[in-house]
Amino acid sequence: MTGDPELQALLRLTAWLSPAFPIGSFAYSGGLERAVADGLVTDAASLAAWIGTLISHGSVWNDAVFLVESHRCQAEPARVAEVAALAEALAGSRERHQETLLLGEAFLAAARAWPDGVFERLPDKVAYPIAVGAVTGAHGIGPEKALAAFLHAYASQAVSSGIRLGVAGQKDGVAVLAGLEQRLLEVARRAATSTLDDLGSATVQADIASLRHETQATRLFRS
C-alpha cells in the first residue's frame, strides 16, 4: 500500500460494500418480499424488527460468523474451503443458496480490480460472506470494521427493499437505519471474536418466508 494504509483500507471497504459495487444485491430481498405478502412486515417498525432480528439471531448473524472465520483463515486454502463448504450447506432454501453464491461470485469478480493472491486461494464458488471475509482479511482490514460495513450494507439493502415493497417511505427508511445503528455495532463487536461454535439461528418465520417465496407468483425480487 502507498500513502496512509488505514485510509486506503477504508476506501476499499467503502467501495466493496457500497450499493454501487456491481454484485446485484438489489435483486434480492432474502425472504422479505414474502414476509410483506404474508403480513409479517407491514410498516417501518415491523421492518426494523425484521432486519434487527435477522442481524442478531438469524441468517445475517451466521453470515457475520462466516465472514470472521474466512477473514481469520484466508491464508489457508484447505481451511477456507472447509468453511466455504459449511456456509453453502447452511443456506436454508434454494433461493438463499442461489443468492449467497451468486453474490459471492459477483463480489470476487469485481474485487479482482484490486489484485491479490487471495483469489487463487479461494474455491471457484463461495458464499458471499466468505468472499468478503477473505478479501478484507487479505487486504489487512480489521474484522470489526469489515463486519460493521458488511452488516450496514445488509441493513441498507433490506431497508431499500422495504421501501420498494411499499412498507416504508424514504424518510422512514433513514430512521430505521439510524435506529439499528447500536445493534449493528454490538453485533459487529460480538461477531468479531466468534468462532464456528457460535453459528445458529432462531428465526423460523424468516426461514419459512424464504421457502415460500420460491412459489410466489408475482414478485419484484429473486429471493
From TrEMBL:
Belongs to the UreF family. UreD, UreF and UreG form a complex that acts as a GTP-hydrolysis-dependent molecular chaperone, activating the urease apoprotein by helping to assemble the nickel containing metallocenter of UreC. The UreE protein probably delivers the nickel. This is Urease accessory protein UreF. Keywords: Chaperone, Cytoplasm, Nickel insertion. PANTHER family: UREASE ACCESSORY PROTEIN F. One of its GO terms (molecular function) is nickel cation binding. One of its GO terms (cellular component) is cytoplasm. It comes from the Bacteria. Pfam families: UreF. Signal peptide: none annotated. The keyword Iron does not apply. It comes from Rhizobium leguminosarum bv. trifolii WSM2297. It is found in: Cytoplasm. Required for maturation of urease via the functional incorporation of the urease nickel metallocenter.
